Write a sequence for this structure.
């Protein structure tokens, strides 16, 4: 019996059914909190915040370490909930990673900055708590990204009201249950509700900061909703990440990395590789290598740890994937492999798909597919590839691949994205700031900059 699931799931007549992403069977029932319950949670969080701040950095960091240890101890139980709700294999891996990031935030040092000290006067820049932080999370890495929000917010002395995605609430409620075992009352509250609750959270006058990971469309609504309370914002929104493979690249050396950069978590990663521009001299070889890997990648329910690719998490996203591939086919693109549902595995499985001989005006290139589909686009001149890669309103991540790291970096400097990787794609580190440009959002997470984003500045002069 999964005790965490039992602790957070409510009786059928009081909750909303949450379905297994692979089998579409009921996993449990999530509470449906109301706007009034949200308001009460925010008021309680505001009352608890001064006491939490008064504990100081050392004590808050100690408690975060205790929580991280408990998360590790509960990794199998929490990972099981993630696997059922989200669909991925290795849900426990996401749980252990979340614990690692929590410890990293607890140990990151942020000292006051001395601005002036000339003997006659002294000025220092301090970072102080904001108050109540609203965290609104996605469904692709529900626990991991919740911790990305929670860890710096709590470390800096804020209290948090956390709203998980409607698609994956149980795993986040279970995570919050672990946190609450060790935190003072009302320092963290998880609210499971619909879009009305999310909108009310963003617009509430007691919310000082909103951190959101999700789609650009929802991000725009959060910006509009927060206008009245002037809450600070950190938005990590959609990405349609481009990669450029330069001439003379060793295809065998990079093929595995390229494939998993695109298909990790079945392509349901904000910073996954989603558009691949390949020089014409090696185009056929790259397409062939990727198709070979797509055909061999083990796909199936995440409950079988031998599987590397799971289902598309929800029907709405499945329809997007299906539409984009159909549009590419109708435009004359070549579906090298895949291109159809894997109905023998379950209703939301879609075969890993490589699309070749596709043009930039195809929807599968211009839109973020967020699923197991990769368009591979031919180019002749590097300058043209850079122009085409930059011709989107999104700019979360990008990458450049080539045998000469210096030449690849020169191309990377011309790419319009918050992070540009060289001979890798999508890797993040708790010490290295991460954030997007253009319509992929603004603000930084992780490391010292992530702590600063969860604080107000105060200058003290004497």
């Amino acid at each position: 019996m999964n005790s965490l699931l039992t602790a957070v799931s409510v009786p059928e007549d009081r909750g909303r059914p949450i379905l297994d992403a692979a089998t579409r069977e009921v996993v449990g029932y999530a509470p449906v909190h109301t706007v009034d319950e949200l308001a009460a949670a925010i008021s309680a969080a505001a009352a608890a915040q001064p006491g939490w701040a008064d504990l100081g950095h050392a004590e808050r960091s100690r408690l975060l370490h205790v929580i991280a240890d408990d998360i590790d101890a509960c990794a199998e139980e929490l990972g099981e909930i993630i696997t059922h709700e989200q669909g991925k294999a290795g849900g426990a891996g996401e749980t252990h990673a979340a614990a690692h990031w929590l410890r990293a935030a607890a140990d990151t040092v942020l000292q006051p900055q001395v601005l002036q000290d000339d003997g006659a006067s002294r000025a220092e820049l301090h970072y102080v708590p904001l108050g109540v932080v609203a965290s609104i999370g996605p469904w692709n890495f529900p626990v991991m990204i919740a911790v990305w929000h929670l860890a710096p917010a709590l470390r800096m002395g804020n209290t948090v009201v956390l709203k998980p995605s409607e698609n994956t609430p149980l795993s986040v409620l279970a995570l919050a249950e672990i946190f609450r075992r060790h935190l003072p009352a009302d320092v963290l509250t998880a609210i499971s509700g619909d879009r009305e609750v999310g909108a009310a959270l963003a617009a509430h006058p007691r919310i000082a900061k909103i951190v959101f990971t999700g789609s650009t469309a929802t991000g725009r609504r959060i910006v509009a909703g927060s206008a009245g309370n002037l809450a600070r914002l950190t938005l990590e929104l959609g990405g349609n990440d481009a990669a450029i493979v330069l001439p003379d690249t060793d295809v065998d050396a990079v093929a595995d990395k390229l494939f998993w950069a695109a298909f990790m978590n079945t392509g349901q990663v904000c910073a996954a590789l989603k558009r691949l521009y390949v020089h014409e001299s090696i185009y056929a070889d790259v397409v062939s290598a990727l198709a070979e890997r797509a055909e061999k990648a083990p796909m199936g329910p995440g409950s079988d740890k031998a599987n590397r690719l799971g289902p598309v998490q929800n029907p709405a996203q499945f329809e997007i994937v299906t539409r984009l591939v159909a549009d590419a086919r109708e435009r004359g693109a070549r579906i090298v492999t895949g291109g159809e549902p894997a109905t023998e595995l379950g209703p939301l499985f879609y075969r890993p798909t490589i699309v070749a001989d596709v043009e930039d005006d195809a929807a599968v290139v211009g839109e973020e597919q967020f699923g197991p589909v990769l368009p591979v686009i031919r180019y002749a001149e590097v300058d043209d590839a850079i122009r085409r890669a930059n011709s989107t309103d999104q700019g979360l991540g990008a990458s450049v691949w080539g045998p000469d790291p210096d030449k690849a970096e020169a191309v990377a400097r011309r790419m319009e994205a918050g992070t540009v990787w060289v001979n890798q794609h999508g890797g993040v580190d708790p010490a290295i700031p991460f954030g997007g440009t253009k319509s992929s959002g603004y603000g930084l997470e992780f490391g010292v900059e992530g702590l600063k984003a969860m604080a107000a500045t105060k200058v003290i002069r004497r």
